[in-house]
Design brief:
The chain is an alpha/beta fold. It has five domains: about 130 residues, 3-Layer(aba) Sandwich (Rossmann fold); about 80 residues, Udp-n-acetylmuramoylalanyl-d-glutamate--2,6- Diaminopimelate Ligase, Chain: A, domain 1; about 130 residues, CobE/GbiG C-terminal domain (Nucleotidyltransferase, domain 5), CATH 3.30.420; about 110 residues, Tetrapyrrole methylase, N-terminal domain (Cobalt-precorrin-4 Transmethylase, domain 1, 3-Layer(aba) Sandwich); about 120 residues, Tetrapyrrole methylase, C-terminal domain (Methyltransferase, Cobalt-precorrin-4 Transmethylase, Domain 2, 2-Layer Sandwich). The chain contains 19 helices and 30 strands. α8 crosses α9. Bound molecules: S-adenosyl-L-homocysteine.
């Protein structure tokens, strides 16, 4: 199953007519959608699960099982069916509707937090439908304010989310005060977006109609406030904890809560808990981390004792071998040189805990530069095909649509721009910086993002896939984290072949004439071997502005072994707007313009032309000799 769909699983679907079933059926096998049909359709679709009785009752029964539900029904019917079951946009499933004609996929409910808008995009790529997204933010080309920080693992804080969303929908000025966390979300905002950044100039500029705080502070918004406000909390705070053996989880939680309240800090901003390795099995700590999804990071005493802290303790040193646990662990986990909150000691009252339980907890807090995303990164290595979106696989489209970040050469990013959605991070780098591109993708994935690295054609054929995997290997990758998935694409040689007929019908090879990463002698040896062995040969990277001679040498090598009349196809920008295709011969091929956007396809000794077509027979005709080299 394509990983891109995982966050929406389990996905249920219901269709009540044969055509709706047929439209939705491709999703069952491809991505594991569970499609329910009424008993009346059982004879036509014997493999699908059947519900009996009323659809209303069936839906009520399956409602809690699915994270997303797809209906092949009229929207009116769907609205009536789901109305009694909807509770809250934080917990309701994503609801989508596919129209009877199979033309549209409508994101009906839970578009943002439930992910229905994004799922409608994925379904559309898979089924060839048009996604219908009716939310205002999508229309404005903005990420929803209530899902803005999701890729970075930020926690949604308190506030009037509906009020702020409404102001954004109206295009009213919204003040954004970001104190911590990634600013990658602002890199690609559309012109005329409503956000006004920073605090200082607010008084002078137009009156703000809403405010968004991005910080680790817990702000109390007054209900009388003139403008709606919300707060996001990037997880940048590492909480160092020391405690007596057997301290109950409630006591540790209370201690942390008290310190956070005293310093006006948001618990949503907690990245994780840090402590001494002896505490890795401390039951209260382990329980707390499990319940609240905090990572528990532990350090050895000799590592902790190297950190210079404001409040060392000789007693602690004599007990566990380091003068500081909470302070040193917080600083180490955060990679910070100072503390945000120095050691605070909390003592539970005797009546709060059982007689022999631990009672004392120390808490210290340090701030990390980068937020903890709590996500396992993914790298999608995607081949986008020769150019036109029609020539790209549905899986590759889904991968691009679902990625948090897309990295690639700017020309290829332009070619796939219709697939991009608001809020995605797009990093286009110049063509010469492939290694930097691979490095950046790995960096973002290690931080927790899902990153699509795109190459034209197939990404594993002179593309980015190898560079990314090579770089991962050099960094001691374990083969699992970040996860990697490769999405194949139609390579230039196939695209070229398709435009001239069937030239690749017999054994063939590809040779890149670029000697940037391969010594020219090696390339020359391969050209000779290919020519000698009568391989049909696709020449990639045939010529650049500075590299002009290699194609002439290649031609002369082939002329030693093949007839000057051998058919040659020269294809430039295949499946792009400025496509040019020429059929010529080996002896005349240099008369045709050739550049870096061109693929040269040299036929074998048997290849023929017929009008505009180039055809290589499937087999050799008996008695026909392969051309011998001239002495
Ligand atoms: N990964 C790509 C190849 C990248 S190397 C693939 O599988 O197709 C770049 C070379 O590919 C170009 O110099 C050119 O030779 C060829 N190429 C890529 N796209 C092309 C297109 N649309 N038309 C013709 N040649 C193309």
């Amino acid at each position: 199953m394509v990983i891109a769909w995982q966050e929406f699983q389990p996905i249920g679907a219901i269709a009540t007519t044969p055509s709706a079933v047929r439209h939705l059926q491709p999703l069952c096998q491809a991505v594991g959608v569970h499609l329910w049909i009424p008993e009346a359709l059982q004879a036509d679709f014997p493999d699908l699960p059947v519900y009996s009785g009323s659809l209303k009752d069936h839906l009520a029964q399956i409602w809690p099982q699915y994270r997303s539900l797809l209906f092949g029904l009229a929207t009116g019917a769907v609205v009536r069916l789901i109305a009694p079951l909807l509770k809250d946009k934080t917990t309701d499933p994503a609801i989508l509707v596919l129209d009877e004609a199979g033309k549209f996929t409508i994101s009906l409910c839970s578009g943002h937090r439930g992910g229905a808008d994004r799922l409608a995009g994925l379904v559309s790529h898979m089924l060839g439908t048009t996604p219908v997204i009716t939310g205002a933010s999508a229309h404005l080309g903005l990420p929803g304010i209530d899902i803005l920080g999701t890729p970075f693992g930020w926690m949604r804080g308190t506030g009037d989310w509906t009020g702020v969303s409404a102001a954004i929908a109206k295009g009213e000025p919204v003040r954004v005060i970001q104190e911590v966390g990634s600013t990658l979300w602002c890199d690609r905002l559309p012109d005329g977006h409503p956000f006004r950044f920073g605090f200082a100039e607010s008084a002078q500029t137009e009156a703000e109609k809403a405010r968004v705080w991005i910080s680790f502070t817990q702000r109390q918004f007054s209900p009388e406030s003139e403008v709606p406000k919300v707060q996001w909390h990037p997880r940048v705070l590492w909480v160092g904890v020391g405690c007596e053996r057997g301290t109950p989880r409630e006591v540790i939680e209370k201690a942390i809560g008290q310190v956070f309240r005293a310093y006006h800090l948001a618990e949503g901003a907690i990245a994780g808990i840090a402590t001494l390795d002896l505490k890795a099995d401390e039951v209260g700590l382990v329980e707390l981390c499990g319940d609240r999804n905090f990572p528990l990071t532990t350090f050895q005493a000799h590592t902790l004792r190297q950190i210079s802290v404001p409040n060392p303790s000789a007693v602690v040193d004599s007990e566990v071998g380091t003068p500081s646990v909470a302070e040193a662990a917080a600083m180490l986990a955060a990679g910070a040189e100072q503390l945000l909150v120095p050691k605070q000691i909390y003592r539970a009252q005797p009546e709060e805990v059982p007689v022999h339980a631990g009672k004392a907890v120390t808490v210290a807090i340090a701030q990390a530069e980068y937020e903890y995303t709590a996500r396992l990164g993914q790298l999608y290595l995607v081949g986008t095909g020769p150019g036109n979106l029609d020539q790209m696989t549905a899986a590759a489209k889904s991968a691009i649509a679902s990625a948090d970040a897309i990295i690639g050469y700017s020309l290829y990013i332009d070619l796939i721009s219709p697939l991009l959605r608001p809020g995605q991070i797009i990093e286009a780098l110049p063509i010469t910086q492939e290694k930097q591109r691979a490095q950046r993708a790995i960096e973002l994935a290690q931080w927790g993002l899902t990153v699509a690295v795109i190459s034209s054609g197939d990404c594993g054929i002179y593309g980015m896939a190898g560079l990314v995997l090579e770089a991962l290997q050099a960094q001691g990758w374990d083969g699992k984290t970040p996860g990697v998935q490769v999405f194949p694409g139609i390579s230039a040689l196939q695209a070229t072949a398709s435009r001239v007929g069937a030239p690749l019908m017999h054994d063939f090879c590809a040779i890149s004439l670029s000697d940037l990463l391969t010594p020219w002698e090696v390339i020359q040896r391969r050209l000779t071997a290919a020519a000698q062995a009568d391989f049909i040969t696709a020449l990639y990277n045939p010529k650049s502005q500075t590299r002009t001679q290699q194609i002439a040498i290649a031609q002369s090598i082939f002329l030693q072994y093949r007839s000057p009349q051998t058919p040659v196809a020269i294809a430039r920008s295949v499946y792009r707007q400025d496509e040019e295709i020429y059929l010529t011969t080996l002896e005349k091929m240099l008369e045709t313009p050739i550049d870096m956007l061109t693929t040269v396809l040299i036929g074998n000794s048997n290849t023929r032309t017929l009008g505009e077509w180039m055809i290589t027979p499937r087999g050799y005709h008996l008695g026909q000799d392969i051309c011998q080299p001239e002495d």
